[in-house]
Amino acid sequence: MTQVLEGSALYDQLIVARSRAPLFAGRLEQAEKVGNGKNPLCGDKTRVELALDHNHISQVRHQTRGCAICLAAADLMAERILGLSPAQALQVGQRFSALLVEDTAPATVEGEFEEIAALGPLKAFAPLRAHRSRIRCAELPWAALKEALSHDDV
């Protein structure tokens, strides 16, 4: 599990570490859900493959070609959504997007999603607020996830 510390030094360390040695990179032999994301401006591409068990994400893999931010975002997203329902995973994605654009911490989510929507190590991407052009890099895997979850099957 990734340790979360405060400050921009963790941002550099975490992004570099997960982009160099991703834990969830690769393919699933029998993906039930597949989504793709592409940023034509910078060339980043990501493919997210999911397997579900009783309406919970049981396996996640990504194939990402792009900058360190995109690679690390895909890998940390995969780690964070493992075990969640599709609705819960999308809720975490909404919180992540809010983190990237809001000057204050995202508002607390009401009810059962509050604990689930916690961002954990994804908070390392907060410094991107000051680099608006890089936000799309961090959000690309989430766009692929949303596409995967919007399909009924592969």
What would you say this structure looks like, in words?
Residues 1-10 have low confidence and may be disordered. Helix 2 crosses helix 5 (135-150). The radius of gyration is 14 Å and the shape is globular. It is built from five helices and three strands. The protein has helices spanning 8-20, 68-81, 86-101, 113-116, 135-150; strands spanning 33-38, 45-53, 56-65. It has a three-stranded antiparallel sheet, with helices on one face. The protein is an alpha+beta fold and 154 residues long. The longest helix has 16 residues, at 86-101. The protein is 41% helix and 16% strand. A hairpin with a 6-residue loop joins strand 1 and strand 2 (45-53).
Descriptors:
5 helices, alpha+beta, globular, 154 residues
Radius of gyration: 14 Å
Poorly predicted sequence stretches spanning 5 or more consecutive residues? 1-10
Compute the average pLDDT.
Answer: 86
Give the DSSP E fraction (strand runs of 2 or more residues): 15-25%
Q: Could you give the order of strands across the largest sheet?
A: 1-2-3
Order of helices and strands: HEEEHHHH
Helix content range = 40-55%
Count the helices. How many? 5
Structural class: alpha+beta
> What's the main sheet like?
3 strands, antiparallel
Write down how many β-strands occur, each being a DSSP E stretch of 2 or more residues: 3
Q: Span between N and C termini?
A: 30 Å
Shape: globular
Give a nutshell description of this structure:
The chain is of the alpha+beta class. The chain has helices spanning 8-20, 68-81, 86-101, 113-116, 135-150; strands at 33-38, 45-53, 56-65.
